[in-house]
Design goal:
The chain is built from 5 helices and 49 strands. By secondary structure, it is mainly beta. The strands form 11 sheets. It has a 5-stranded antiparallel sheet with strand order 1-2-3-4-5, with no helix packed on it. The protein starts with 5 loop residues before the first strand and ends in a 9-residue tail after the last helix. It comes from Brassica rapa subsp. trilocularis. This is KIB1-4 beta-propeller domain-containing protein.
Length: 666
Amino acid sequence: MASVRRRYLSGARFMSETPIYRIVRADHCRYSSRDESVGRLVVRNVKASDSEDDEVLEKMVPTDLMTPTGTIGASQGWVATLKDNVVWLQDDLNPFASDSSPKRISLPRPKTLPDCQTQMVTNVALSSSPEDEDCILAVKFVGAQLSLCRPLLSLCKPAENNNQWVNIRIEDPGFFSSRVMYSNNEKMFSMLGRGGTHTGSWDLENHRSRSFDYRTYKEYLPSEMADMSRCSRSEHLVEAPTGETFMVKWYTDIFWNGPDDGVRRWKRFMVFEVAGGDAHATNDIEELCIFLSTKGEPFCVEASLYGLTPNCIYYVGDFDYGKVNIGNNERRHLVGARFLSETPLCHIYGVEHCGYSQAHYGRPRYPQIGRLMITDFTGPSCWTKVLEKTVRMDLMSETGTMGASHGWAFTLRYGGIPHLVDDLNPGVSNSDGCEISLPDLVTLPHCQTKLVTSVAMSSSSPHDEDCILAVKFAGPQLSLIRPAQVNKEWVNIKIEDPSFFSSRDLGENLEKPKAQEFCDVFTPELLKSEWERLDSCVTRVELVESRTTDEMFMVKRFTERNDFNDGRMEERRIWVFRQDSCSTWCFTENIGDLCIFLSNAEPFCLKASSHQKCKNSIYFIDKSERGIFILGDKCKTSNFNKFTAPYFIPPQSYLDANCSDGYDSP
């Protein structure tokens, strides 16, 4: 085993030296002398307990390596990048490599063979450390081209290094989307053909192929086979330190989880032991465990040497990661497992003042700024984290923000000019922040545009071409706009029905206004004393979708003034109604493995077990109280404080959180 072996995974890497690390992220902290953003490397031991935090190292790395296109793969502790027609091998993301003197080896882009391309890379593989004289680098491009070279030879003869690539055109279309790995058993680079029916092996001079005969195949129920037929599948070849070769079939399916669009997540693994030309299905790889990722080479270790669980697959996909027991195909989410490429679920706790902005924008010219404070809300005694991210203090004022949706806040700054800002999104760095200026609001007759009830967006990013922003003002006006359009214009709607004047909107299809009449609402039976108390409460009704289960809920909140906490409003009771196929709202005290999040932002619903939250519960926060309401027990746990920005920020793709192009001029 090499001293350090890294497997790059879309935002996370596995390191197979004791301890085995996953690269989590890089926290931006400054700019280097070359004007590149650098940040502290954040890693996590894969065997860390749920209570342990990620490790923030002093090691500084370029933050662009953490973007989805920052690297093209990794092998043997080196990441590969493709910039300006140059292939780079660098050890920046190795926690054990030098911070002050990172190693970087540059190679020209391989020559593109006829009817091939060298822009999109499937993955890379190294036969050993690129500093070894005999090391060979393999770059597998999407399509027919596989390119090999000796990095050290190219480094020693830079004037001739363009001739050091050996470019191979693969004729079999079954390998066009395959991933390359280095086989220590064959001393060649190997790939699995589509479907896992055959392999091909290459080196600088030779090529050979081999077909598999599936001798045994696990029996599945018809429902399981139907599920797998809907999935996408990838095949991975991995060699064990004990000499065995395994083939893993990785099935992924689209799941709805939270307010984001559907993302592809793990569904099932199938493992085969390959011996000669035979492939035998197996549920037991004994004392071994396998590591798979979407970008790096797979690898296999003896579990006992690393304190890991045997007969398991540790995997990292684009949007989830976890640990799967091969024996029963049961998955255990690791801490943060469903958020490999997503921002954390949290709520805004406040801002800790730290100075004045030196940026020449805004009014005042140098506004007060502070470090953003968030909490991963699990209860009234949850922890609070002060981030390095700085935001303007005026966003925390009573009128600093008017609402939020998908991590974007709506403000009326600079004398009432509407803006969408992502300053309060903890998944966006200072340098990547975005501010979208919107046209002046137009007030309809007998309406107002100063007091906002709520805002909602139809998709997770206002940069999406089809995204629609809805702003519901107190009173009859509802205003819609497409933020991504060049010539933005508000579509202003005057609602005639007074029952909607104080309503909050829900980001569904906002293209055409429509009314829906519900057949009936079935409410719970109450004692006279209970009814009298609830009848004296202030009520608020909100709609929320569960994309996990494709259900619609109506939540009715009852709040009353608390004489023991300076007269602050307190949550008294929460009712939940589920809509059936006849548009009837039925009272329920059981929403299963779901939890609902209510705040001044758009409400959303998540699968509780995927986010380590309490199932069948309501998480709520307003300007004076936050807490959890357990529906079945009618039990509430809460605490009181002043929350200046009472927003839950839902999990979202880092691609959406960081796709901004900077500040638009107001």
